[in-house]
Amino acid sequence: MHQFFSTSNTPSWSVSPPVGHDHAPMFLARQSIQNGDLGKALELITPALPKRDQLTMDTYADLLFLMGEYESAFSIWEDLGDEKSLDDIIKTVTTSHEKEVQILALHSLYNIDPEKYTSLLVDRLRGQKQLDGAVSILNRSIEDFSESPEQTNWLQTLGAIYQEQQLFPEAEAIFQSALERDPNNWKAWLSLGRNYFLKDKDFGKALDCFEKAISIEPTSGPAYNAIGNLYSSSENWGEAIKAYQAAVKFNPEERSYRFSLASAYSATDQFASAIKVYQEIIRQNRNDAYAFFLLSEAYWLNQQPLEAIGSIESSLQLDSSNASFLITAGNYYEQQGLREKALIVYQAVVTIDPQNQVALAALARLGNSN
Fold first, then answer.
1. pTM value?
2. What Cα–Cα distance (Å) separates residue 237 from each residue in 145, 232, 241, 261, 266?
3. pLDDT at 2 over 50
4. Is residue 292 within 8 Å of residue 314, measured between CB atoms?
5. What pLDDT score does 98 carry?
6. Can you tell me the distance from the alpha carbon of 90 to that of 169, in angstroms, rounded to the nearest whole number?
7. How many H-runs (helices) and E-runs (strands) does the chain carry?
8. What angle do CA 153, 155, 157 make, to 5 degrees?
9. What backbone phi and psi angles, to 5 degrees, belong to 339?
10. Rounded CA gap, 277 and 261, in Å?
11. Predicted confidence (pLDDT) at residue 16 exceeds the cutoff of 70
């Protein structure tokens, strides 16, 4: 909610304004707003509106905002060039409805300073799946601020949105435009390579672009990861592993690269190596239930059932209502002859999902065993 009585707009009267002071009605109006008497505040503000001085209009905007007339409030702050009041709004929203209000506020900020607020507005529009609106804003800013240092980021974002919309020829044109502007833009080479693969499954062109990105930025974890994904798509696991190892080396804090590396190890039955990587992931975050789950699978495939059970139980300690975790635990327990434990977890699955066929079949099977 907008913060009232900011020092920039409010006179420093300790109790009440001087008798007959021009701003006395605004002081009283703000007191009424603070006390929740919006009707009284409106009565006090209305006669002063023709003057349209800053304090009156700012107070009126506060009131309109509290009355839910957001567009009118934001229009006033926009006319006043009041970035702070609008910025207060966008920092305090949480609900879906408030996010719509946030976007209205960001449009007003954009109208005050388009170059400054393009990226923030576009980010929020993308978050709300308003991709056409984001594209419109980006195209306008790219055209209007051709010398802006933000051009590169805008082009990257525009191309990414086109990819989300599966408009691959349009995305390619944007990434080519970014490279014309800066041939050493490794991120643009990376995006262009992804686009070639998404559009035509063109392995060769994609790999050329990724290698170009690395020639410009030799420690680019994202580029090595992209190469790993490319080789994984053709099940060339040896090359994929090399690329993922480089990605982890250069960006050790990016956990997704380790997940990809561990998956590639598992795909080639290198379960001991996969286990080591999952353990590294868990050391980074011991509250990752999914990492414990994947570690349990690697242990199981590596013929280490007790360790597998310990890991899946760690997953369930973190997420006890996950049906996949429960069914996996039930399978491990069954295979190890732990019938009572298996019954407990399968029953927990049915409690969560009464129609779960895997759990129902397991309960029927175990119920008939001696």
1. 0.80
2. 45, 6, 6, 10, 10
3. no
4. yes
5. 78
6. 35
7. 21, 0
8. 70
9. -60, -45
10. 8
11. no
